[in-house]
Design brief:
This protein is α+β, with helices and mostly antiparallel strands and 405 residues long. It is 56% helix and 20% strand. It contains 13 helices and eleven strands.
Length: 405
């Protein structure tokens, strides 16, 4: 029996029981659709996290102060100021591969401009901060090294702060008051959106770090320093160089713990990506279970079909059909069910993902790999769960099959 005849007979058998065929495919459609949608949600969340990590800047290394032990009282990272301005300047001057450094000082304040006021974060940074963060100005200019040395009363506004303090006017050149200290607005940042932790990155005021230390935070030590490596290949070398430099400057002996912590952007990205991969795998695993249940449904229906068509199988064998022809016929029926259901499932999964994005505003990302994998898996399910019924049909005794009522 030629192959195209076997295929023709298989599809004719499926068309005879349209409702049963549709209901059998429904399990595969739901399974594949769930896989596509769930993987799309996971990939969308992963892409969003990666975009937010990229918003931190390129090749960024963060140095945090703290982790000290005094009189038996231990302070965690960031719990005490153990970094100095001289440490930051030494990083830029002495560590090979460092392209930019920004000492960081943070404080909160109620800010006023005319009749408007807003509670926000005040960040003391160097002139290199926008370069490190790859953050452009929407209008105005950045403060200068001269402003940093003089602890000048100048600032840069985030978009959220600018919109709330100056809703109907241009803030450039205007004066705001931070804790009753008049500060001249030099520029407004372009909107950057939410951070990887969900906070509004645009709800911030950036001032020279010397200004923040003297006028707002009232500190002489730093809690963190931002550094940027010249390239991604240099990150590990730069991190090691910073570690060695700070241990030397802080006179930390061999065998003793650092009084600082260093994290680079790659480590943060790997941690967040691993969490997203776990979530995606969990979602896909749940969806695959429904696909397997659909495969079991195919096996069940194929076994019923073999029983119903026992006499037909006997007649085919009596007129010359071989066992492998019967095996191939029923196997084609099972694969046709699963493959057609897989194709419809892919369409339903893509539509479902788009609906989730539209109604729930969740980011989804449908990759071609997930579509190919889902379709291949659905076809494999048809072969796996269809083989046993097909083999059972091919091993029927023709005489017994002809006598079957």
């Amino acid at each position: 029996m030629r192959y195209f005849v076997i295929i023709k007979v298989a599809f004719r058998a499926l068309r005879r029981n349209k409702m049963r065929t549709i209901l059998t495919m429904l399990g595969i459609i739901i399974g594949v659709g769930a896989v596509i949608a769930m993987v799309g949600i996971g990939n969308g969340a992963k892409a969003q996290v990666q975009a937010r990590i990229a918003a931190l800047g390129q090749n960024v290394i963060q140095v945090f102060a703290g982790n000290i032990n005094r009189g038996g009282v231990r302070s965690g990272y960031g719990g005490a100021g153990t970094l100095t301005i001289e440490d930051a300047l030494a990083m830029e001057r002495e560590v090979p591969g460092v392209s930019a450094v920004s000492p960081e000082v943070r404080s909160g304040a109620q800010v006023m401009a005319g009749n408007n006021n807003w509670s926000t974060s005040v960040m003391g940074e160097s002139v290199d901060y926008l370069t490190i963060r790859q953050w452009d100005l929407d209008d105005g200019v950045m403060f200068s090294d001269t402003d940093v040395r003089a602890a000048a009363k100048v600032c840069i506004l985030g978009k959220t702060v600018a919109d709330n303090l100056f809703p109907d006017e241009d803030p450039i050149g205007k004066v705001i008051r931070i804790r009753n200290v008049p500060m001249k607005v030099l520029g407004v940042l372009k909107p950057k959106g939410a951070s990887m932790y969900g906070s509004d990155q645009d709800d911030v005021i950036i001032v020279p770090y010397t200004t923040c230390m003297k006028r707002f935070a009232g500190v002489t030590m730093l809690r963190s320093i931002l550094a940027q490596a010249g390239s991604a290949d240099q990150i590990n070398d730069v991190q090691d160089g910073i570690t060695n430099l700070l241990r030397q400057r802080h006179r930390i002996q061999a065998g003793h713990d650092d009084d600082f912590m260093i994290r680079n952007q790659q480590e943060i990205a790997e941690t967040q990506t691993a969490a997203m991969d776990t979530m995606t795998a969990l979602l896909a695993g749940v969806a695959i279970i429904s696909l397997i249940v659909g495969g079991i449904g195919i096996m069940n229906i194929m076994l019923v079909s073999v029983t119903e068509r026992t006499r037909e199988i006997g007649i085919r064998m009596a007129v010359g059909a071989r066992g492998r022809d019967i095996l191939l016929q029923f196997l084609i029926e099972a694969v046709a069910l699963s493959s057609t259901g897989g194709a419809l499932g892919i369409m339903s999964g893509i539509i479902g993902a788009q609906l989730i994005t539209f109604f729930q505003h969740w980011p989804t990302l449908i990759s071609p790999d997930s579509i190919v994998l889902a379709f291949a898996f659905s076809a494999a399910v048809g072969i796996f769960f269809g083989f046993y019924p097909a083999r059972k049909a091919s091993q029927l005794d023709p005489i017994d099959a002809l006598r079957y009522e």
